[in-house]
Amino acid sequence: YSHHIDDALEAKVGPHGLPQAVFDRELARATPALDKIRQWRNDGTLPLLKLPAARDDIAAIRPHAEHFRKFEHLVVFGIGGSNLGGQTLVALKDHGFGPAKGHPKIWFMDNVDPATFAEMCERLPLERTGVFAISKSGTTAETLTQLYSLLPLLEAKVGKANLAKHLLVITEPKDNVLRRTAMRLGCPVLDHDPNIGGRYSVLSLVGLLPALIAGVDVAAVREGAASVLDPVLAAKEATGLAPAVGAALSVGLAKERGVHTTVLMPYCDRLGYFGFWFRQLWAESLGKDGKGTTPVRAMGTVDQHSQLQLYLGGPADKLFTVLILDTKGQGRPIPAAELGGDKSLAYLEGQGLGDLILAEADATAATLVKNGRPTRVIRLKTLDEKVMGALMMHYMLETMFAAELWGVDAFDQPAVEEGKILTRQYLSQRRRS
Ligand code: PA5
């Protein structure tokens, strides 16, 4: 993939134009951040940075993938970082019309809406359904409540003796309620690395196991991640590491100029969940001590007909990243003869859907730049596992660099924890008699 900070950020003038000299000066500040990230990798503080090169752990999860692949459906209970990475990778194979042939349909059940849950229980053939419960802490109320709500129904269908064959748990290797539940049920429990935070866990078994079951080439995902990480770790100084460092700097500099919203707009359905994954990563890692920018997930072309008016005509407080996949020549070209001789449709002659979505993406990026909106364009020649891994690593690095430059801890989430504690308190106080 190639990354380009477009004219609006490089401009010498304009509402958010950043003079190159300012950008270069800031870039020098990134070298200490790079050193820190490198140190975290080398001393093992950040095992996530060792994952792109790891292989043995994939071999270890393969037998579980083989077992669960035999089910018709797989329900994954887990929320936030225990959900979005896997869901994003699985979307490479299933983005609306069902799984690849021979693979189960995977249902990521993050929300706890009782109506959705009831529908799931009613519609899924539980006797042909596997169930994962993923929670790093093993204490998250949503995940536990869903699991405990389903267990009796599942047992009624498959029998006590077979229950464990339908279940798998991923949680930290320490005592917690989810682990105790798994031990009691006798189902497999896989360890969630305690030093990898939920939203950074996509390259670990948390993201890779569901992906493997869906038929994703997970080794290629890691290979793609390594292709972005390795040059960053090998670089002597931050200067010249344009993608991850430059991107973090540009967001910070734009923020100083009143740009508080970061919009990610992929023109590709398979990147729809990537937008949600990015949104969590960015918000939960950087939104601290009054800092951070608000991430917005938009979709091209849909949001051209919904949000673009605001993006262009509303407050100039947003930075845009347009993710453009080269779809030129894709889709059936519409022959002139099928256009009924209508001259106003001449622009469609010989063009297909791929040409249309590409033209729309280019047009959006160009319009944003023309209107002085700070815009980055990431161009993807193709979208496969390697590219997805590269993109994810790029954004994890960009987030870490931004955190270092802004002076926040990218890896904690005190506000989220506060919400979890309060939820449990409220539930205890409001116990049904
Ligand atoms: O990234 C994070 O830390 C959070 O989004 C968690 O993943 C989320 O709150 C779920 O936590 P747990 O995996 O402990 O159930």
UniProtKB/TrEMBL annotation:
GO CC annotations, alphabetized: cytosol
Gene Ontology terms for molecular function: carbohydrate derivative binding; glucose-6-phosphate isomerase activity; monosaccharide binding
PROSITE patterns: P_GLUCOSE_ISOMERASE_2, P_GLUCOSE_ISOMERASE_3
EC number(s) recorded for this UniProt protein: 5.3.1.9
This protein's record includes keyword Electron transport: no
Pathway(s) served: Carbohydrate degradation; glycolysis; D-glyceraldehyde 3-phosphate and glycerone phosphate from D-glucose: step 2/4
Any single GO BP term: gluconeogenesis
Coiled-coil blocks: none
Protein family: Belongs to the GPI family.
Protein name according to UniProt: Glucose-6-phosphate isomerase
Species assigned in the record: Enhydrobacter aerosaccus
Higher taxonomy: Bacteria, Pseudomonadati, Pseudomonadota, Alphaproteobacteria, Hyphomicrobiales
